[in-house]
From TrEMBL:
Residues 8-196 form the Class II aldolase/adducin N-terminal domain. Zn(2+) binds at residues 94, 96. Belongs to the aldolase class II family. MtnB subfamily. Its EC number is 4.2.1.109. GO terms for molecular function: methylthioribulose 1-phosphate dehydratase activity. SMART domains: Aldolase_II. This is Methylthioribulose-1-phosphate dehydratase. The keyword Metal-binding applies. Its cofactor is Zn(2+). Binds 1 zinc ion per subunit. It comes from the Bacteria.
Length: 204
């Protein structure tokens, strides 16, 4: 994919996430794989609802900026970790929604979503009659250490879903293309909102 196309997809995704309230302040980061070794990713500290192509830059697979003067997302290594582990990934989305923040601050283990129609957006067959356990990791400002924890988790659970939550921080979701990743993010956020709502008003 060309840089221009990737930047356009990232700008559009940022607007959508902002419209849905998932990237308050300068939260969130977004990337698209450009080829075997290059990733287009948001620069650090930009508002994701007001991105232009100038807010997108290129890093290599190890997270090094192609332009050494440019500062990519603080969490670039988490994007690199996903592309490295799941080579079919074409786009990665990270947002801070109210639902993923509140639920992960309270739940200790993975967040189990079962019986939702929108589970069809996740791997596991075209049925709602399934469950997805979304991993929750402790937040850590040491991003290489956080990525090591993820690698240990993925080693132990090779069938982990294409997403995880960092406690009290936000969610990462990925897919083969930006559309695919966005579909999964929207599905996951909807189910998390339902989960939160049910906890506040338990079904009789
Ligand atoms: C608004 S603070 C949020 C950041 O600490 C971080 O979690 C985040 O999502 C955005 O960081 P960024 O470096 O702009 O990609
Ligand atoms: Zn974040």
């Amino acid at each position: 994919m060309s840089f221009e196309d990737a930047a356009g997809a990232i700008v559009a995704a940022g607007r959508r996430m902002d419209a849905l309230g998932w990237v308050p302040a300068t939260a969130g980061n977004i990337s698209v794989r450009l080829g075997q070794d290059d990733i287009a990713i948001t620069r650090s500290g930009r508002h994701k609802g007001a991105l232009t192509a100038a807010d997108v830059m290129v890093v290599d697979a190890a997270g090094q900026a192609r332009d050494p003067g440019a500062r990519p997302s603080y969490e670039t290594l988490l994007h690199c970790g996903i592309y490295r582990r799941f080579p079919d990934t074409g786009a990665v989305l990270h947002g801070h929604s109210l639902a993923n923040t509140v639920l992960s601050r309270r739940d200790r283990g993975p967040i189990r979503l079962a019986g939702y129609e929108l589970l069809k957006a996740f791997p596991g067959g075209p049925t709602h009659d399934t469950a997805v356990a979304v991993p929750v990791l402790d937040n850590d400002q040491d991003i290489p250490r956080l990525q090591s924890a993820l690698d240990r988790l993925w080693d132990a659970t090779p069938d982990a879903p294409p997403g995880y939550i960092i406690r009290g921080h936000g969610v990462y979701v990925w897919g083969a293309s930006m559309d695919h990743a966005m579909t999964r993010l929207e599905a996951l956020e909807f189910m998390l909102r339902c989960h939160l709502e049910e906890e506040r008003r338990p079904t009789p």
